[in-house]
Amino acid sequence: MASSTTQHVLSSIKLLPTGCFHHDRRNSCVLSVSVGRRCRSARNLGLVCASNTQSSVIEPVQLPGSPKSGATPKKSGESALILIRHGESLWNEKNLFTGCVDVPLTPKGVDEAIEAGKRICNIPVDVIYTSSLIRAQMTAMLAMMQHRRKKVPIIVHNESEQAHKWSQIYSEETKKQSIPVITAWQLNERMYGELQGLNKQETADRFGKEQVHEWRRSYDIPPPNGESLEMCAERAVAYFKDQIIPKLVAGKHVMIAAHGNSLRSIIMHLDKLTSQEVISLELSTGIPMLYIFKEGKFIRRGSPAGPSEAGVYAYTKNLAQYRQKLDGMFQ
């Protein structure tokens, strides 16, 4: 299935000139995909740690205060938060600085996204957040094709009042069979400025390894005319707090498909990493991370292993019950 899906998706890809920090509807692209078959067994791809600790459960993060929204959200026992870095992109493959340039997935990246979907197909998802860049949106769509609930992801357009109205779903039955996908430039990859499009090795040879390493891995030093990780974190974490945490508080299960640096920023917030710890944090492409939000705290559960495996994290009672429900629906 992965190979046939790869050919279908890649044949319909267009490279889009999407801006770095805004979403232009005229240049937007909606990836239409049909819902895939029931997920099959997947191999164990191992655990990706989100910090230097070897434990898959971190010291919980206590949230300060309640959401800014005037309405009181519905309380829930726990909510799932899934973080996925997009699959390998065309410029990842070519070892180029990508940043906020809009490039598609490679065939390997498509397969990674499909594999990620198999690993989360037993975890509930109510809403998806992704960046405005096609590689993250493709990853989200391809991953959800593998989910056992077989709901269709539909992009919600909030860039204008008219676009929002046009993209609304009025059928209650259709709403039950779909998952809203919200795109946000705040979740875009860090902007690499004048380095974007340059080969990483050639750039190191030209400017020196130490200088390029400082641009890439320091927390508060940006590349020429670009963003530092600190600047990326300011927008990504602010959006996470303002838009995504209220969903979790309301009992919604959330998936975020984004980029290495925007996700590192969010993980820095969740795991309470220091600026020194976060610069050594590496996230592999297409590997999902699972957090549980419960009683105002985030608990990291590691990376799901596969739909038919026990996993490298322990299922919570609610997740186990959800999986049993799926087993009953699709036996």
From TrEMBL:
GO terms for biological process: canonical glycolysis. Its EC number is 5.4.2.11. Substrate binds at residues 85-92, 98-99, 135, 189-192, 200, 216-217, 260-261. GO terms for molecular function: phosphoglycerate mutase activity. InterPro entries: His_Pase_superF_clade-1, His_PPase_superfam, PG/BPGM_mutase_AS, Phosphogly_mut1. Gene3D superfamilies: Phosphoglycerate mutase-like. It comes from the Eukaryota. Keywords: Glycolysis, Isomerase. GO terms for cellular component: cytosol. The record marks H259 as: Transition state stabilizer. The active site is at H86 (tele-phosphohistidine intermediate), E189 (proton donor/acceptor). SUPFAM superfamilies: Phosphoglycerate mutase-like. It is an enzyme of class 5 (isomerase). NCBIfam families: PRK01112.1. Belongs to the phosphoglycerate mutase family. BPG-dependent PGAM subfamily. This is phosphoglycerate mutase (2,3-diphosphoglycerate-dependent). It comes from Sorghum bicolor (Sorghum).
